[in-house]
């Protein structure tokens, strides 16, 4: 998956150096769980960073492109001395719940003239919810274990809109304010506190992780702020 994402990014970088009418942007999103996601998992909030590149279709108020985002919707740290039989030193068990999104982007700019430029946006793609853990002796040491607990893909769609606020005549870019609604197909995921460790009561073998897997769509409202630049 990482190789595929790097290949997509490098392809768009190559294209943008050879063609006009491209725009590059960075966004900070803040997802707020709604609907089935909120009722199943509680009041989850997801900070997410995304990068995108769009192509402005000549003589049309339309952009098409691609967006890649990464967020964390929960993290936990345990300090335990019972993870391995015969090893009683305290170890750090860090677990992160992650989201990775990859989507095509469609933007339409109504012919409204003024100091700001409104747009309507839709996205269609996929989202990957995955949980990983690391076991270390100290925060800076190499992991003893670095493994995945659970990973699941789902279809994703987003709809919403926003505003471009030009940064000035000397800067070919905009401040970008946006509000989107995200809907996905149901998928399996873990939240903070959904994994517990049970040591072997007899102390003859290593313990095991017990999972409380949840399943629902990842419906969210996502306000975001970002910045973008034109590439001539």
Short key terms for the protein model shown above:
mainly beta, Porin, two-stranded antiparallel sheet, 2 helices
Topology readout:
Blueprint lengths: L1 H15 L5 E12 L1 H7 L3 E12 L5 E19 L10 E18 L8 E20 L8 E22 L6 E12 L2 E3 L5 E4 L9 E4 L2 E3 L3 E12 L1
Antiparallel strand pairs: 1-2, 1-12, 2-3, 3-4, 4-5, 5-6, 6-7, 7-12, 8-11, 9-10
In short:
Residues 1-19 form the signal peptide. By secondary structure, the chain is mostly beta strands.
Helical stretch count?
2
The 3D shape can be described as elongated
The class by helix and strand makeup works out as mainly beta
Provide the helix percentage: under 10%
What is the CATH architecture assignment? Beta Barrel
What distance lies between the first and last C-alpha atoms, to the nearest angstrom?
Answer: 31 Å
At the first level of CATH, what is the class?
Mainly Beta
Number of domains: 1
Report on this structure.
By secondary structure, the chain is mainly beta. It has a single domain (2-231), classed as Beta Barrel (Porin). Helix content is 9%, strand content 61%. The protein contains two helices and twelve strands. The chain has helices at 2-16, 35-41; strands at 22-33, 45-56, 62-80, 91-108, 117-136, 145-166, 173-184, 187-189, 195-198, 208-211, 214-216, 220-231. The strands form three sheets. Strands 1-2-3-4-5-6-7-12 form an eight-stranded antiparallel β-barrel. Strands 8-11 form a two-stranded antiparallel ribbon. The model is unreliable at 15-19 (pLDDT under 50).
């Amino acid at each position: 998956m990482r190789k595929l994402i790097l290949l997509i990014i490098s392809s768009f970088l190559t294209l943008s150096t050879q063609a006009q009418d491209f725009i590059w942007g960075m966004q900070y999103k803040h997802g707020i769980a709604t609907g089935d996601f909120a009722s199943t998992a509680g009041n989850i909030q997801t900070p997410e960073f995304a990068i995108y590149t769009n192509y402005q279709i000549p003589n049309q108020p339309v952009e098409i492109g691609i967006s890649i985002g990464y967020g964390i919707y929960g993290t936990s740290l345990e300090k335990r001395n019972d993870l391995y039989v015969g090893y009683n030193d305290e170890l750090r068990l860090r677990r992160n719940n992650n989201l990775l999104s990859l989507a095509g982007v469609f933007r339409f700019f109504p012919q409204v003239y003024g100091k700001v430029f409104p747009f309507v946006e839709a996205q269609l793609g996929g989202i990957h919810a995955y949980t990983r853990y690391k076991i270390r002796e100290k925060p800076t040491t190499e992991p003893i274990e670095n493994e995945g607990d659970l990973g699941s893909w789902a279809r994703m769609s987003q709809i919403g809109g926003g505003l471009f606020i030009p940064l000035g005549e000397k800067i070919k870019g905009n401040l970008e304010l946006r509000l989107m609604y995200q809907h996905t197909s149901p998928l399996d995921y873990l939240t903070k506190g959904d994994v517990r460790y049970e040591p072997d009561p007899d102390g003859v073998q290593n313990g095991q992780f017990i999972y409380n897997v949840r399943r629902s769509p990842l419906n969210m409202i996502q306000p975001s702020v970002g910045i973008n630049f034109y590439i001539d």
